[in-house]
Design a protein that fits this description.
The protein is an alpha/beta fold. It has one domain: D-Maltodextrin-Binding Protein, domain 2 (3-Layer(aba) Sandwich). Helix content is 50%, strand content 20%. It contains 14 helices and nine strands. Helix 7 links the parallel strand 5 and strand 6. The longest helix is centred in the last third of the chain and has 35 residues. The chain is globular and about 55 Å long.
């Protein structure tokens, strides 16, 4: 009788333990997070993803299970945006250029030579203008958690260094699939070729294009010094990265969890920006050591003058009030 009682008690304890483990497993929120570039310690997209996961774990240990899908494993930016809209993909680190396919107001950040430095960009994107942009995504099924950064985009190619706008003449450059990017580089005299990121390296390697425009960390992390000769520090566009989550995924979270996610994103973005900034000089040295010829652009005003028509042509798409408020900040 005593033996049976012990066995019954043991069975009950095992059952309770099993139910507790099952309950804990059910309580864990899985977040599938994708991005298009390499899972490298210097890649800005990857840094954003990893820091976000780390901050979630700090705030709520074992409550979130973030699964990483880098290097366009879940498709290109457009496919990942669609996945988030449908609730198939939980979260993504997406370049602002591609977010503009959902709302053209995001083309604000792609205006050439808008920001003089990262501090200006942060002031715009962390304030009322940035919040206005992110709020517009909710009607599209996506919640914007904030803007990380890939830094300023520069020009790499195999024809010549870019010292003045005239040096762009005839150079075939891969640009992001964006009408604004195409228009900007046409104004500069280049021959822009809009290609998906997944096609860019092969296109340069095979000579289908002469080069591309790209941030420093992405040049290094994705091995572009192996296939391109010249790096010109044109700093023509600030590359904002949206840290986004599916509205369906976000809506399944409790109010407390939603606040944890927002706070984790804010902390991750602050850390990511510091890391990207500290990495840039070291990365530039490594790029030079791998044989790329580097030059800095001295006369930015000449480039700004060439692209002036782009601002007026895209005023209505971006929104005149939004553009004017950004220009007031960047003019200071």
């Amino acid at each position: 009788m005593i033996l049976k009682a012990k066995r019954s008690l043991l069975s009950s304890l095992i059952m309770v333990s099993t139910l507790a483990v099952a309950s804990q497993a059910q309580a864990t929120t899985s977040i599938r997070l994708g991005w298009t570039t390499a899972d490298s310690e210097v890649d800005p997209y990857a840094i954003t993803a990893h820091y976000f996961a780390e901050e979630l774990e700090k705030a709520a240990p074992d409550e979130f299970d973030v699964k990483f899908f880098p290097n366009h494993q879940l498709g290109d930016d457009t496919e990942m945006l669609q996945g988030m809209q449908l609730g198939i993909l939980d979260a993504g680190v997406i370049t602002g250029t591609q977010i503009s396919t959902l709302d053209t107001a995001f083309q604000l950040n792609d205006l050439p030579f808008l920001y003089a430095d990262s501090e200006q960009a942060h002031e715009v994107l962390d304030g009322e203008i940035g919040q206005t942009l992110m709020d517009r995504l909710e009607s599209q099924g996506i919640v914007g958690l904030g803007f990380a950064e890939a830094g300023f985009r520069n020009t790499i190619n195999n024809v010549r260094p870019i010292q003045s706008p005239d040096d762009f003449d005839g150079i075939k450059l891969r640009v992001q699939p964006s009408d604004l990017y195409i228009a900007s580089f046409r104004e500069l005299g280049a021959n822009p070729a809009p290609l998906a990121w997944s096609e860019a390296f092969t296109a340069v390697q095979q000579g289908t294009v002469d080069g591309l425009e790209i941030p420093l960390p992405v040049i290094y992390a994705n091995k572009y010094p192996e296939v391109t000769q010249y790096l010109s520090m044109t700093r023509h566009t600030y590359n904002a990265l949206g840290l986004l989550i599916s509205k369906q995924t976000f809506g399944k979270l409790s109010d407390e969890q939603q606040e944890i996610v927002r706070q984790a994103a804010e902390k991750a973005i602050a850390r990511q920006r510091e890391t990207v900034a500290s990495n840039n000089e070291r990365i530039l040295e490594q790029i030079e050591s791998q044989g790329m010829e580097v030059n800095r652009v001295e006369d930015v005003a000449a480039f700004r003058e060439k692209v002036a028509p782009v601002y007026e042509n895209y005023r209505d798409k971006i929104g005149g009030d939004l553009l004017d408020r950004a220009l007031q900040i960047t003019a200071q």
